[in-house]
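Progress note, sequence design subtask.
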């Protein structure tokens, strides 16, 4: 799951103006922001193993802090608490935390067994990465369905909706069909940060054009 992680952010933002869409976009991918940061420090690990799944060569064999259910809950509580403290809005904090936690639940659908409950086996994953005919339309459907819902309910600038949609689609196409790295390097994390940052910036920009919800 890649751009599909932003679907919950768009759904939540379609109903409320707080937290803002930029914050929710960060929340939706916070687990992966943290994973690629931990990858740089050596706290978590992955390797490229072609064939580990049909769609994704990333062998995510060691990520106990970010991609365990317990770890995701910790990130959700922490980030939701920050949002609650800044906005003084309990609902905003709870919704942000829920969006953070949605990351693990969506990953459970697509990952081959590499997720954990608390950092140790059993490893979990329903493996839709091995079924592209299901995973690809599912990811596009939930993402652009959520974008349509946001646009319908919040009435942002149509141009900005198109820009965000094009950026997310382009990122997903590169993810699915672009060249595959043979090894994990510093550039692996930097490329992930660029992709997440670009989409988040576009989401924030689109959200700024939406009138406040009532």
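Output:
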């Amino acid at each position: 799951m890649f751009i599909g992680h932003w679907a919950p952010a768009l759904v939540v933002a379609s109903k409320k103006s707080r937290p803002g869409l930029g914050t929710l976009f960060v929340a939706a991918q916070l687990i992966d922001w943290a994973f690629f940061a931990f990858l740089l420090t050596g706290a978590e690990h992955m390797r490229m193993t072609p064939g580990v799944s049909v769609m994704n060569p990333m062998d995510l064999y060691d990520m106990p802090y970010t991609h365990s259910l317990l770890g995701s809950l910790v990130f959700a509580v922490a980030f939701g608490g920050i949002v609650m403290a800044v906005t003084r809005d309990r609902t905003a904090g709870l919704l942000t935390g829920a969006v953070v936690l949605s990351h693990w639940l969506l990953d459970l659908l697509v990952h081959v067994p590499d997720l954990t409950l608390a950092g140790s086996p059993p490893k979990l994953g329903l493996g839709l990465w091995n079924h592209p005919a299901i995973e690809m339309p599912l990811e596009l459907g939930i993402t652009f369905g959520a974008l349509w819902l946001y646009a319908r309910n919040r009435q942002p600038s149509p141009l900005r909706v198109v820009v965000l949609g094009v950026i997310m689609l382009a990122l997903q196409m590169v993810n699915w069909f672009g060249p595959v790295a043979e090894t994990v390097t510093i550039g692996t994390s930097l490329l992930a940060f660029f992709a997440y940052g670009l989409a988040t910036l576009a989401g924030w920009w689109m959200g700024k054009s939406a009138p406040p919800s009532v």
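Residues 3-39+64-104+133-208 form one domain. Work on this subtask will continue into the next period as scheduled.
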